[in-house]
Design a protein that fits this description.
The complex is a heterodimer of chains A (324) and B (197). Chain A has 324 residues and is of the alpha/beta class. Chain A has two domains: 147 residues, ATPase, nucleotide binding domain (Nucleotidyltransferase, domain 5), CATH 3.30.420.40; 158 residues, ATPase, nucleotide binding domain (Nucleotidyltransferase, domain 5). Chain A is built from nine helices and twelve strands. In chain A, the strands form three sheets. A five-stranded mixed β-sheet of chain A has the order 3-2-1-4-5, sandwiched between helices. In chain A, strand 2 and strand 3 form a beta hairpin. Chain B folds into two domains: 77 residues, 2-Layer Sandwich (Phosphorylase Kinase, domain 1); 112 residues, Transferase(Phosphotransferase), domain 1. Chain B is of the alpha+beta class and 197 residues long. Helix content of chain B is 46%, strand content 20%. Classes of the chains: A alpha/beta (324), B alpha+beta (197). At the A-B interface, strand 8, helix 7 and helix 8 of A face helix 1 of B.
């Protein structure tokens, strides 16, 4: 089975063609804000402008290789409303043009499924960290249940906000990670874990304040060490509670080496295994939508046009995992 | 089994190891090598102190808890309750007592953070509450709602006929706590959100 997938919930517009064995082709166009963070309408405009090129490129490849998609999958949510609508419109057109079923995919579930596919994890506690999300999930009774999540802003957002406040350009994450390597000491910052939940807003503000008095590298290091320790702690608790022997890291912030290292240490200490998908599958990509669409379609699912409206607040546990 | 005087491990969670030693329970928070030693020590010390404090404070609000005998930097020594875990013996009558007990806790401005039937012990006809490791001070409807939600989730996932137990809890909770109605309404909302745990 061959599935065409289209992702565009936020900064990355990406189309891909996959089958059961792997990614056949992928093409992306990345929106970079002129200044500040992502502007939803500008991002949607970016996606609209690049849609013909990105989709056309993948379709040209499929024609040349004689690969006809059996279904069209698209990211239905969660995400930025204007971006989602641009993507959904394109997907509906493709579905009608090829006369193949449409599949509305949950973006978070797609991160998990592509992660399992590419890393070999089977039944992990999942830590999903990105610019928009910070959640710890695990499969239980047919759904990816949220065991813990941020009560305010995501970890990616917290790091970006801090980075902007100290004059580092977008995306701030990699720059903070690099600076942290040059640090000499740890500056105490607020560590906020409430049960299984996290809060990053106060931490980000405290880091901004600390940067006025301390060396920037030391603050970057302290911000990472504090925020990541919070994430690892909640992940460990979810593993214990859900009785999982594996942990898998997904989402854009997962590219941070220190976070992966800390999770790996935690897993070793518990006699568990840590899984990290290849970097190109960590951030938003079309392949994850296509692959999840493939799983859904094989389990007999499809999304009729009248149910294909965008879902900006689509919850992970709204999705019945009928393919597991 | 160890001989008299030896420490016997009776529990191990993500955070701490619990042993029984000379008739007393010892809870030791373990070092986590994934985090910086100074951050690790700060967190373990803060939580140990907070757990000891809230365990005693809850008792002042009429919630039976083990008596704290000693607090060291990362360790708490406390009374061994014995008794039976509610997990194994719960009935609607006992669940109503849980409702009253949680009502007193919330009235006192305390959130337990992990209200499962494994953390409740029936002894001498009273429900005792243990493991305040995730407890904190807060009086918001949301925090109280999440607290109660955890208890209902436990009933639904591990006990037969949960609805009777839930109804009994609601009766006891409402009798004691004046803010009960808003909290129980919020519990339904939290459940509808699909938030797990």
């Amino acid at each position: 089975m061959i599935v065409f997938g289209l992702e565009g919930t936020a900064w990355n517009l990406s189309a891909a063609l996959v089958d059961e064995r792997g990614v056949l082709y992928e093409k992306s166009a990345t929106y970079v804000p002129a200044k500040g963070g992502i502007h939803p309408r500008e991002a949607a405009q970016h996606h609209a402008e690049h849609m013909a090129k990105v989709v056309g490129d993948v379709l040209a490849h499929s024609r040349e290789s004689g690969l006809r998609p059996d279904a069209i999958a698209f990211s239905q949510g969660p995400g930025l409303g204007p971006c989602l609508r641009t993507v959904a419109t394109a997907a509906r057109v493709l579905s009608q043009r090829f006369s193949v079923p449409l599949l509305g995919v949950n973006h978070c579930v797609a991160h998990i499924e592509v992660g399992k596919w590419q890393s070999g994890a089977r039944d992990p506690a999942v830590i999903y960290v990105s610019g928009a999300n910070s959640q710890v999930l695990a499969l239980r009774q047919g759904r990816y249940r949220i065991f813990g999540e941020t009560l305010d802003i995501s970890i990616g957002n917290a790091i970006d906000k801090f980075a902007r406040s100290v004059g580092l350009s977008h995306p701030g994450g990699p720059k903070v990670e690099e600076l942290a390597l040059k640090a000499n000491r740890y500056i105490p910052l607020p560590y906020t874990v409430k049960g299984m939940d996290l809060s990053f807003s106060g931490l980000s503000t405290a880091a901004t304040e600390a940067a006025k008095k301390h060396d920037l590298a030391d603050v970057c290091y302290s911000l990472q060490e504090t925020a990541f320790a919070m994430l690892v702690e909640v992940t460990e608790r979810a593993m214990a509670h859900a009785e999982k022997k594996e942990t898998m890291l997904v989402g854009g912030v997962g590219a941070n080496k220190r976070l992966g290292e800390m999770l790996n240490t935690m897993c070793l200490e518990r006699g568990a295994r840590f899984y990290l998908p290849p970097r190109k599958f960590m951030g938003d990509n079309g392949s994850m939508i296509a692959y999840t669409g493939l799983l859904m379609h094989k389990s007999g699912r499809q999304t009729p046009i009248e149910e294909s409206g965008v879902r900006p607040n689509y919850r992970t546990d709204d999705v019945a995992v009928t393919w597991a | 089994m160890g001989q008299e005087g030896d420490a016997v491990e009776i529990g191990r969670g993500a955070e701490a190891v619990i042993t029984l030693e000379q008739g007393k329970v010892r809870k030791v928070r373990l070092a986590k090598s994934y985090r910086l030693p100074e951050l690790d020590e700060r967190i373990r010390a803060e939580r140990t102190l907070r757990e000891a404090r809230i365990t005693s404070d809850a008792r002042r609000h009429g919630v039976p808890t083990p008596i704290i005998c000693d607090v060291m930097r990362f360790e708490i020594e406390m009374e061994h309750l014995g008794g039976e875990k509610l997990k194994d013996i719960i009935t609607p009558e006992i669940s109503e007592m849980v409702g009253e007990m949680v009502g007193r806790l919330h009235k006192g401005g305390i959130i337990h953070g992990d209200l499962t039937t494994s953390n409740m012990i029936l002894k001498s006809g009273r429900v005792h509450l243990i493991d305040f490791g995730l407890a904190f001070y807060e009086s918001s409807v949301e925090a109280q709602g999440v607290d109660v939600h955890v208890y209902f989730q436990t009933l639904e996932s591990t006990h037969d006929r949960p609805q009777e137990l839930i109804d009994a809890f609601r009766a006891g909770y409402t009798r004691i706590y004046p803010g009960a109605e808003a909290v129980l309404e919020r519990v339904n909302e939290i459940k509808a959100r699909g938030r797990y745990l």
